[in-house]
Amino acid sequence: MVDDVFSSLDGKTKDGLRTSAAASRQSADETVKTTDEADRFLIHARALASLVEYGKAQGLSDEVIAQEMARFGLDDVRIDAFDSFISMSRFAKLIRQFGRLLDNEAIGLDVANPLHLSSLGVFGNAVVSAPTLDVALQVLCRYMRLYADVSFASTTVGDERVFFDWAYSPLIVARDVMCDRGARMFLTHMRDLFGANWVPLEVHLQRARPNDLRPYREALRAQVVFDAPLNRIVLRRSDLDLPNVRTDHHAHEVALALADRMMAERRIPDDLSIRAREDIMHHLVDEGPNMNETARRLGLSPRSLQRRLDDLGTTYQRLTDEARQRLAEEFLVQTKLPMGEIAYRLGFANQANLTRACKRWFGRPPRQVRAQAV
């Protein structure tokens, strides 16, 4: 599909698109720019195919689609290979741009539908063939990175409720559309496998509350919590035993064996400074900057972490400051959170500390950063 978009254009148009794209990529209308660090986090290229399919179905021309793909550096992508991946950050920004063109704030919900699990190779087949919802969740948590570089995916089983949690790297720009897309994909596929009438108890999204809640209520069919610290689907414990109407024991065993092999070969972002900054971002609210805890979660001693960061030319304090700056820009530009709440989420003792930090980072106080973004 991606190749078809470009092949449908004449050579002069293609050259023009690529030339204009080269000039515009540096200013692709995002407040937070895509960086080499964010580009380390990947998603399967077939996700791009489903986005192109959606755009064409909504009336976007081949030329417009090609221009926007080139703008974000996604104009030379192979979608026919099972091991082809693209930058998740660029993909998320392209979704958001399609949303602007189509005047659709909830586009993340809509672009999830064209993608079928069976198109995702071994990972999709392992989920589709799982005998129960419990096993499907285990597969999702264990093999999610065969599809996308999520920060984590986990299932917690309580006495009456089950929590399926996942998060995308805070380095990903336009993370809100990925949260919407991920939740809709999960619910769509679970209903396909375990019954069209199945609904979760709650859906928590790690994104700002949208202006129009109607698309979320209609698509997710559950109580939705916005501005959540992570993405979460809340299920009943009894749901774990739901049988899969499409289960295939032999296919499931084969898919798991292949998935284990592919996980061993899958490239995972492993730069220590990136992993440390991600950890800081995820835990600023609950514990603030804490090098001892970051080191523990990374499997290092505090001294080893400090030494290895020094070898990389950085420090834990610098990573903390960078993490706070990235999150501050995201909260100020993409959410309507009060300043006191933003200060709290960044691990500052008070709002005055946030104001001083913003003046140092952006040259102006936080309210001006938000006002100028609007």
Q: How many beta-strand elements? A: 7
What count of helical segments does DSSP give?
18
* SSE pattern: HHEHHEHHHHEEHEHEEHHHHHHHH
Going across the biggest sheet, name each strand in turn. 3-4-7-5-6
- Strand fraction equals 5-15%
What best-fitting shape do the alpha-carbon axes yield? Answer: globular
Give unreliable regions as ranges: 16-35
Indicate the percent of residues in helices: 40-55%
List the helices and strands and how they pair.
Layout: H1 2-7, H2 11-24, E1 42-44, H3 46-57, H4 62-71, E2 85-87, H5 88-102, H6 107-110, H7 121-128, H8 133-143, E3 152-157, E4 161-167, H9 175-194, E5 202-204, H10 214-220, E6 223-225, E7 231-236, H11 249-265, H12 272-287, H13 291-297, H14 302-311, H15 316-334, H16 339-345, H17 351-362, H18 366-373
Parallel strand pairs: 5-6
Antiparallel strand pairs: 1-2, 3-4, 4-7, 5-7
Please characterize this protein's 3D structure.
The chain has helices at 2-7, 11-24, 46-57, 62-71, 88-102, 107-110, 121-128, 133-143, 175-194, 214-220, 249-265, 272-287, 291-297, 302-311, 316-334, 339-345, 351-362, 366-373, and strands at 42-44, 85-87, 152-157, 161-167, 202-204, 223-225, 231-236. Helix 15 packs across helix 18. The longest helix has 20 residues, at 175-194. The strands form two sheets. Strands 3-4-7-5-6 form a five-stranded mixed sheet, with helices on one face. The chain has 374 residues and is of the alpha+beta class. It contains 18 helices and seven strands. It folds into three domains: 2-110, no CATH class; 117-265, no CATH class; 272-373, Arc Repressor Mutant, subunit A (Orthogonal Bundle). The radius of gyration is 21 Å and the shape is globular.
